[in-house]
Amino acid sequence: KNQVEQSPQSLIILEGKNCTLQCNYTVSPFSNLRWYKQDTGRGPVSLTIMTFSENTKSNGRYTATLDADTKQSSLHITASQLSDSASYICVVSLGGDKLIFGTGTRLQVFP
Amino acid sequence: DAGVTQSPTHLIKTRGQHVTLRCSPISGHKSVSWYQQVLGQGPQFIFQYYEKEERGRGNFPDRFSARQFPNYSSELNVNALLLGDSALYLCASSYGSSGNTIYFGEGSWLTVV
Question: Quick one: A92 exposed, middle or buried, by C-beta within 10 A (0-12, 13-18, 19+)?
Fold first, then answer.
């Protein structure tokens, strides 16, 4: 069964701190892995896309890593800001736009 | 440049009714896909259309159908609504059929009572 699991489910950090979110997947066939940010009640916004040959991809303060052998990915957020408060969703593509979404990590950044 | 636009933003229907949700992709994008997001869960893939042809279908009953028009806009239709169909319905567009950045709209909130 295609599954994408994320941890932790929720996380609270202080503004300015770093954090790392984890994603494990059992998806086949694997096309690419994406991280999205979703504010409550809004559509997801793409942060990064990585194919199996890419180990790391950065987008500003967001850095994603991928280990295709262990089927693990992480999203590292540096120098967190209050606006980073959102759900972060790990998404694996089977090909086409058929995406398997994880349940997300809810991040809250406090001043 | 306008992003992915969806309408209506919110609607309430009663059980057994039919609903049509609409989506306009980003200009130049030929692929449109639909997702259902139940509160507290991640989105679930429903359909993908590319160049007006169905390219993928998720595990949803036949009550769900969709189509893509020559201008690449799309409609999602749901018949015989059930309470469990209450969700945020997200439309996403991308330029090609695979491997491109996928842009999501803000969604249509459907409540079935």
Answer: buried
Main-chain dihedrals φ then ψ at residue B83, nearest 5 degrees: -55, -35
Q: Is B48 exposed, middle or buried (0-12, 13-18, 19+ CB in 10 A)?
A: buried
Residues 28-67 (B) with a CB less than 8 A from some CB of A: 31, 33, 35, 40-45, 48, 50, 55-56, 58
- For the cut 60, the answer to whether the pLDDT of residue B1 exceeds it is no
> What distance in Å separates residue A12's CA from the closest CA in chain B?
18
Q: For residue range B24-46, what is the model confidence (pLDDT) as tens digits?
A: 999 999 999 999 999 888 899 99
Pinpoint the alpha helices (H) of B6-111.
Answer: none
When CB atoms are compared, the residue of A36, A43, A51 closest to B106 is: A43
Q: Does A23 touch chain B (CB under 8 A)?
A: no
User: Any idea how long chain A is?
Assistant: 111
The reply to whether residue B105 touches residue A43, judged by beta carbons under 8 angstroms, is yes
DSSP structure class, residue B59: S
Q: How far apart are CA B88 and CA A48, in angstroms?
A: 23
